[in-house]
Every structure is written in C-alpha cells, then in structure tokens.
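HOLO CASE FILE
Compound: adenosine-5'-diphosphate
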Amino acid sequence: MALIVQKYGGTSVGNPERIKNVAKRVAKFTAQGHQVVVVVSAMSGETNKLIALAKEVQPNPDPRELDQICSTGEQVTIGLLSMALKNIGIPARSYTGGQVKVLTDSTFTKARILSIDETNMRRDLDAGMVVVVAGFQGVDADGNITTLGRGGSDTSGVALAAALKADECQIYTDVDGVYTTDPRVVPEAKKLDTITFEEMLEMASLGSKVLQIRSVEFAGKYKVKLRVLSSFQDEGEGTLITVEEDKNMEQPIISGIAFNRDEAKLTMLGVPDTPGIAYQILGSIAEANIDVDMIIQNVGHDGTTDFSFTVNRGDFAKAQAILETIKVQLGAREVTGDNKICKVSAVGVGMRSHPGVASKMFKALADESINIQMISTSEIKISVVLDEKYLELAVRVLHRTFGLDQ
Ligand code: ADP
Ligand code: ASP
Ligand code: MG
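Model generated. Tokens follow.
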C-alpha cells in the first residue's frame, strides 16, 4: 500500500464529464489498496475569468480581495470531485486550503507555504477516505485566504506530498509528460522519460509552465518523487523528475528548449557612466516590487553608457514610468522600451562538459537572420532575447539544431 498525492490541472477537470473521469482514475488507485490525496485546480479558464471580473470592478485589484475571489475557483472543483467520488462508492471529503490548514505567509497573490497540518488528512485517510484538497490556496496566520501564484496547484500538490511523506506525487495534466519543448509549438518535440531537478528548475523558470517553478524547488528540497502524466491516457509512465543525472548514460548536451513570451525590455540611453548607476536604476525598480530578469550595461563611451533590463510584461508600464521619473535626476538622455520581445533558452546539464554550445546556438539563429538582442548564460543554460515575431521559428530551429527531434 502506498500513499499517493495526485494533482489534476484545469483542463483535466474542465467539465463534469472530465471530473467523473478523474474520480474513476482515483478509484483505480484505491481499488489497488493505495491511499490517495487529490489536489485539484479550478476548472480551465475559471481563474482567468475571476481575475477579469475583479479587474472590471477595480482595474488594479486589491491583492487580499483578489485572493478571496480567485480561491473560489478551486473550491468549486473540490466539491464536484468529492461528489463524483461518492457517486461511484468512494468515500471522500473535500477541504479548502484553510480547512487543511495550509499555512502561508501574507504575500497575497504569491504567498509561500510555511507549514501544513496533516491531522485532518491523516484521520480521513486512516478511515479509508479519499482526501480532496483545493490547490493554489492557503491561509495566513490571521486567517486571510491567500493564493500561491499562477500555476500554484502544482506547488500545493508537491507540498502536501512532502508534508504527508507520500510515496509519489503525480501531476496529471493535458500532455503525457515533460517534452523537449512545448509540444504545442513544436509537434516533433519528444517526451522525456526522466529529467533532472536541476534541468526542470531551469525549464520552469525559463517559461515551461508544465510545472510551476516552486513545485520543482519544493520537490527537490524535500525529496518528493515527482512525476508528470496525462490525465487523458490510461497507459504511460509520464516523466519522472530525478534527483541525479544518470551517470551511466551519455547525457544529451541539451535536454530542452524553453521560451517565455511574457517579457518586456527597457533601456536607459546615455546615462552618465559613474559608480552607482545600476544601483540607482534597479533600486527604484526593486522598490516598486518589480522583478528584473536579464541586465545589460554597455561599455561606456563619451562618459555615458546604455543600460537595459527585462521585466515581466505585466510590469512594463510601471517600470517605464519609474525610469521616466528618475531619468532627469540621473541626467540620462532617453528611455526606450519594447514589450514585443521573447526569451528563448537552451537547457542541459550536459552543457557543462561541452564547449561550443553557445556558438552553435548563435550560428543557428544567424542562419535564419534572427537578431539577438540580449544574451545571458549559466552553467546549464543559454538564453537569448529576440523580437517576439521570431519565437516559433527560433524554438523550432534550436530544437532541430540540438538534435532534439531525433
Ligand atoms: P495544468 O492546467 O494541468 O496545470 P498547464 O497548462 O499549466 O496545465 O501545463 C501544461 C502545458 O504546459 C501543456 O499543455 C504544454 O502546452 C505546456 N508546456 C510548456 N512547455 C512544456 C514542455 N517542455 N513539456 C510539456 N508541456 C509543456
Ligand atoms: N487555478 C490556478 C491558475 O489558473 C492554479 C493552477 O491552475 O495551478 O493559475
Ligand atoms: Mg499548470
């Protein structure tokens, strides 16, 4: 007998029929004698609808109230799934994050989980019930409902698996595993049987939303056995996220291509090239709670320099306004911005032992006349910022260049 945490994403619970199918899948596991905790997302499109609704009333929604609203999506699904389970004779009980209690900090809309009380879940599991928990939500020390950021049900699933010391955490979604790149963009993408935590972390942080980055961090930290599977197929082992590289196997140099359409670039032109410039520019941006991704400062000439960085597209207007206000005080010439960019990255632990990956990547892009606007590298990834019109082409070309479609 094993204890399994299964998480089902929005599409997998997208309508009553699919919810009934999830119940049937859960029943297969309980029939084998396993204990099951199910974590569900809101039905597909619901969270977007709730956010849009909130914005109709308050264009820049109050974060506490937004969480109050957004958390309702998952509350509907847990009730429906518990009903569907009971209908087929499986005893089940639903819990909101607060009822479990998934304690978080008070950072509304992107709260972090601090602790999980397993008492209620253990009692129900021991009584032979399936426990159905609302993903994406928790409660802070003052009893306020919080949410964990978009895609946060993955993190709920992994965190519950860690708290319960589950044998496995299965993430059921609308693809049958982690692919060499998003199979919706490159149909030739190949499913990976395994991927290391390190690579999955990079892929997730560079835009592959198949797993929320925090869920991967959590799984790595608490050694949760994590697997991504299809909720629409009965067969298949999905993709196992592994702790270690398989030392016996020749590592591919590149494991996957990730991309992110959600980026925007800002540049301060003609800033006096003096100590403290980066601090003054990025300090003001950080004060406004805006995360900065890539940063480039050009070599100065005529005593001035150009300073560029990228932010999430949603923060573009705010960041631009901040730069306009500090421009005068810094004595800069001009502020420019571009919110039609994207970031494309090649990820692979095999890169460590293989020089020349970057030049291969740059040549492949040059051969397609794709201009690179910014570059950033680490030991296991190379990212480039491009005009967003080249996104699909660049991803396809790099996928082919690194032999991922073989
Ligand atoms: P869920 O609602 O189940 O959480 P998501 O939409 O959040 O599902 O994540 C699954 C989607 O992630 C897939 O439909 C796919 O388009 C996308 N995706 C992006 N990169 C990858 C990748 N490398 N492998 C598999 N899927 C990917
Ligand atoms: N429903 C939430 C979202 O759409 C959480 C999730 O699906 O993981 O972001
Ligand atoms: Mg998701």
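CASE NOTES: The pocket of aspartic acid (ligand 2) is lined by residues 9-10, 41-42, 47, 73, 135-136, 150-154 (CB under 6 Å). The chain has two domains: 3-174, 257-401.
CLOSED: yes
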